[in-house]
Task: structure prediction
Amino acid sequence: MTEPAAERGTRWPVADPGDVRAAADALTRGRAVLHGFANIHALTARPDREGVALANRLKGRPEGHAGSVTTTPEALPGLFDWTRLPAELPRRPLRLLMEELYELGPFGFRGPAAETVPDHLTAVRDGVRTTRVVAPGRHCPSNAFFAAALDRVGTGLLFTAFADPSRHLPDVPVLAHADDRATQAHHPHHAPVPVTVVAFHRSAGYGRAGLPALILERPGSLSAEHLRSVAANHGFALAPAVPRAEARVYAPSAAR
Result:
């Protein structure tokens, strides 16, 4: 019997349904999968401790690193415990902001973790059990891979980490965009770096206009200026970002 192409390390197109199903099967069997994630790439694995440890080893991180989780757009709000939302932050405008940002492209949020999120995928921040959810945006083809993998694994989330596609990862199936540079062009507002992350597990006070402030946990692909404008349309200010090192660019060396 011929070994599937992905098992031999061949790049598969992320938009091909048959290859998506095969990659989801590989993930279910305990493999990590490197795939297109909006205008960059991510390494996604099962959310159990073994899958998390595998992905972290491939990334060169401690095996128990909580990192980020991902899911399909429809299931994303269910990973947060909205009953623990700070009183200063109204729920419906926050949900609408979340929807607009994912309509725009890749983004991430940290919030109070739902009870269904395993403890090893959470982190206690400011006394709150939280989880960080990242997603490639509503229109990314990788959502089909997520849906197929979730259906097979039987969970509501997957473990994921951003990855450099030029780095050789042995025995890792690859679901690739047909043309990386064309994919980047489809995200004119997003730089090819890990996603911007906003936190709402606690209030950051109020902005100059008296709007409740969200926390810019990690500057990333969507600029703070653009994010601030979108947030203001939904009645939120943005707390000043903490200075940090320049984000690593995961741009491909050439279109493939």
Confidence is low (pLDDT under 50) at residues 1-8, 244-256. The chain has one domain: 5-238.
